[in-house]
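Ligand: iron/sulfur cluster. Inputs:
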Amino acid sequence: MVTVPRRRMVVDESICRNCGKCLVTRGCKYMAALRIDRDEPPYIDMGRCTLCGACLQNCPFGAVVLVAAEHE
Ligand code: SF4
Ligand code: SF4
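Predicted complex:
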């Protein structure tokens, strides 16, 4: 049996400049990149995220990263 490593998208809050380009309204068509408070960095709802990678491309600062699920 082949084991596929579980992965997840996270926003590195130390890099994020809160520009909003990754958000549902501007980048994520799966409604997974969300921001509750305008002053807070987005978070990615892995219940919706398909790991499509669009936010990796859309973030101009490299703040969205793909990590192993264990590295939450
Ligand atoms: S990987 Fe795709 S689905 Fe997941 S948050 Fe980024 S843009 Fe949305
Ligand atoms: S696009 Fe990048 S810098 Fe802008 S809000 Fe999203 S994670 Fe933060």
